[in-house]
Amino acid sequence: MAEVLIVKTQEEAGAIYAQAVGEAIKANPKLVLGLATGSTPHTAYQALAKKVKDEGIDVSQVRGFALDEYAGLDPEHPESYHSVIRREVVEPVGLNPELINVPNGALETLPHAGADYDAAIEAAGGVDIQILGIGTDGHIGFNEPGSSLASPTRMKTLTEQTRIDNARFFDGDLSQVPTHCITQGVGTIMKARHLILLAFGEGKADAVAASVEGPVTSICPASALQMHPHATFIVDEAAASKL
Ligand code: GLP
């Protein structure tokens, strides 16, 4: 079973993430970070930015790989994950943008973009610490229910539920939410050496319970974390309420 830490506030969760990552960077300045989007990691990135600044940690050589990207959305669109990762992590933490990778959602190269991305992760020596959020249906990255637990990075169709959940980032207009994406596979994510999954709020309680205590099944992609040698769930009391 994965380790579960129940915290009172998102700030507390962020501090645990920042401590783990900050210390790991001190020990290995070329650390490879796995990055995630969504609203959940925000406080973790803020806490890391503060720790890096307060302690003068050199992050100039830190490398990063984001989990996913919308397909066919201009990378300069404010809600593309290229933009979100730049705004939420790269700029506040002061990472070198040239060392931070986001899957390429351009339609022309989609057929091989997944394999190219996995090859790049492998060439970097693999991800050391991967931060994860979780969808209300138990998805990680954009691996929707039914995704193979051995899947590589590839194109996927977004479920209606995920598009509805994410419409808030597109002025609440569902028609603006892309229908497809490119995402690290569950198999890709599972290769990271340490997984830290954050979940806050009652809306995530069912997904957290299914992931931590339910059967390991592709119907709940996050349940794969039960098989990982070093996975940590950091959840608030509301997200833990169905455990
Ligand atoms: C999107 C992302 C996931 C993220 C999820 C939850 O679907 N692809 O990586 O975990 O949203 O988002 P939030 O953290 O905003 O609840």
TrEMBL record:
Active site: residue positions: 68, 137, 139, 144
Ranges in coiled-coil conformation: none
Domain spans labelled Glucosamine/galactosamine-6-phosphate isomerase: 12-227
Entry-linked Gene3D superfamilies: 3.40.50.1360
Reported regulation of activity: Allosterically activated by N-acetylglucosamine 6-phosphate (GlcNAc6P).
Molecular function, one GO term: glucosamine-6-phosphate deaminase activity
Site-annotated residues for Part of the allosteric site: 147, 154, 156-157
Metabolic or biological pathway: Amino-sugar metabolism; N-acetylneuraminate degradation; D-fructose 6-phosphate from N-acetylneuraminate: step 5/5
Catalytic EC class: hydrolase
GO biological process terms on file: carbohydrate metabolic process; glucosamine catabolic process; N-acetylglucosamine catabolic process; N-acetylneuraminate catabolic process
Keyword list, A-Z: Allosteric enzyme, Carbohydrate metabolism, Hydrolase
GO cellular component: cytoplasm
Superkingdom classification of source: Bacteria
Keyword Acetylation (UniProt): no
Catalytic activity: alpha-D-glucosamine 6-phosphate + H2O = beta-D-fructose 6-phosphate + NH4(+)
Signal peptide (UniProt feature, chain positions): none
Enzyme Commission number(s) from the entry: 3.5.99.6
UniProt record similarity statement: Belongs to the glucosamine/galactosamine-6-phosphate isomerase family. NagB subfamily.
Function: Catalyzes the reversible isomerization-deamination of glucosamine 6-phosphate (GlcN6P) to form fructose 6-phosphate (Fru6P) and ammonium ion.
Record protein name field: Glucosamine-6-phosphate deaminase
Organism: Alloscardovia macacae
Lineage: Bacteria, Bacillati, Actinomycetota, Actinomycetes, Bifidobacteriales
